[in-house]
Amino acid sequence: MGEMEELRKEADNLKDQITEARKVVQDTTLQEAVAGTTLVGRVQLKTRKTLRGHLAKIYAMHWGTDTNCSKLCVSASQDGKLIVWDTLTTNKVSAIPLKSSWVMTCAYAPSGNMVACGGLDNMCSIYNLKGKDGNVKVMRELAAHTGYLSCCRFLSDSEIITSSGDCTCVLWDIETGTEKTIFAGHLGDCMSLAVSPDFKMFISGACDFTAKLWDIREASCRQTFSGHESDINAIGFFPNGNAVITGSDDATCKLYDLRADQELITYQDSGIMCGVTSLAPSLSGRLLLAGYDDFNVNIWDMLKAERVGVLAGHDNRVSCIGVSSDGMACCTGSWDSFLKIWN
Amino acid sequence: MPGVINMDELTDVDKAKMERDQKKIEVKLERWMTSKCCTEFMEAVQAGVEEDTLVKGIAEDKNPFKELKGGCVVC
Predict the structure, then answer these.
(1) Is the pLDDT of residue A64 over 60?
(2) Domain boundaries of chain B, sorted by first residue
(3) Other Cβ atoms within 10 Å of A35 Cβ, number
């Protein structure tokens, strides 16, 4: 038997063992476990603010988390701008022109001191919002990926994690502008990443239909979650960090428990046939807000896996969604060039 | 700095080895019973739901995003 065949056979054997081990611990399903709970009441959110200013499709948005900026958010558009918004007043705190307009992601540092973005330039550019003369300038350009930058998330002012179309994720030292760790293992473009609440792990979703849990300091992949039948475009942690939520081109979202190492439930409806572009859980995790290609956001009861609301208000695809860190509002960004704040 | 991994440069055999080695790690994982996970999941949700604005709603006068009264908005 050739080396390839042997390796494949070994891997398949191990995969079968993993499938068995997962079955052994499956003594109930979430559906059975929640049978006695009541469906959450119908959720009807209203648009409270519309953020107008971008001139082209919005691809990404991210809320600030620090108490000084919990009502600030940053958005990225293919009009070549990053805009930092005060969502209470709808004022633009900063409008940052980008070298490359082909931006696909943006992030707000937990401290509120920096924002980052990247896209088809294969780079992650870091901007200092608190420069001495008040001007926002590029601080670092992190270049090493050989594919587009799909997502980035700060761990702190000195470290950021990126995911790329080159199938890898990278942990960067912002100060030196170099790669500290390369996380390889996905067999398809990495589309999205999310950092655990304790900043020790991160998860990535990819075009190989899997999600991977990575240990940042050990530089290793701990777990791989399968089940989706197409690309995973969006990923997030359940608020307590013990579960992962994924959204896919297969029109479903899935909840995977990290300790059981398996899917607990799928959020799907025969009436929904288009891909999931973005997702965010509400503060308690009771609700899952997911953006779809059909211009809507569906709101799911995460326990009962039933739709309990819809956010309809955009005139094009909802490309990004986020819930503020205090859970008071959700923000949607769309290809129609607007961001909306709902609660 | 760790070696730059360019996925394009990995051979099929390299990728198959990575996959096999990764599964060797994953097979050893200690897994919890799903009943325990489901119970904890439900408890975590119930614990936070009263403070969850998007679930519970918010009174107009307490909503920081309410309409700003007075003045005019120039778009």
Answers:
(1) yes
(2) 31-57
(3) 9
**CA-based nearest residue in chain A for residue B64:** A88
Three-state secondary structure readout of chain A: CCHHHHHHHHHHHHHHHHHHHHHHCCCCCHHHHCCCCCCCCCCCCCEEEEECCCCCCEEEEEECCCHHHCCEEEEEECCCEEEEEECCCCEEEEEEECCCCCEEEEEECCCCCEEEEEECCCEEEEEECCCCCCCCEEEEEEECCCCCEEEEEECCCCEEEEEECCCCEEEEECCCCEEEEEECCCCCCEEEEEECCCCCEEEEEECCCCEEEEECCCCEEEEEECCCCCCEEEEEECCCCCEEEEEECCCCEEEEECCCCEEEEEECCCCCCCCEEEEEECCCCCEEEEEECCCCEEEEECCCCEEEEEECCCCCCEEEEEECCCCCCEEEEECCCCEEEEC
Q: B15 vs chain A: nearest CA distance in angstroms?
A: 8
Q: Tell me whether residues A167 and B7 touch, CB distance under 8 A.
A: yes
- Tell me which chain A residues have a C-beta less than 8 angstroms from the C-beta of B32: 25, 257, 259-260
Tell me whether residues B75 and A52 touch, CB distance under 8 A.
yes
How confident is the model over A161-219, as pLDDT tens digits? 999 999 999 999 999 999 999 999 999 999 999 999 999 999 999 999 999 999 999 99
pLDDT by residue for chain B (75 residues), tens digit each? 344 566 777 888 999 999 999 999 999 999 999 999 999 999 999 999 999 999 999 999 999 998 766 556 566
The ipTM is: 0.92
- pTM comes to 0.95
The band of A146, judged by pLDDT with boundaries at 50, 70 and 90, is very high
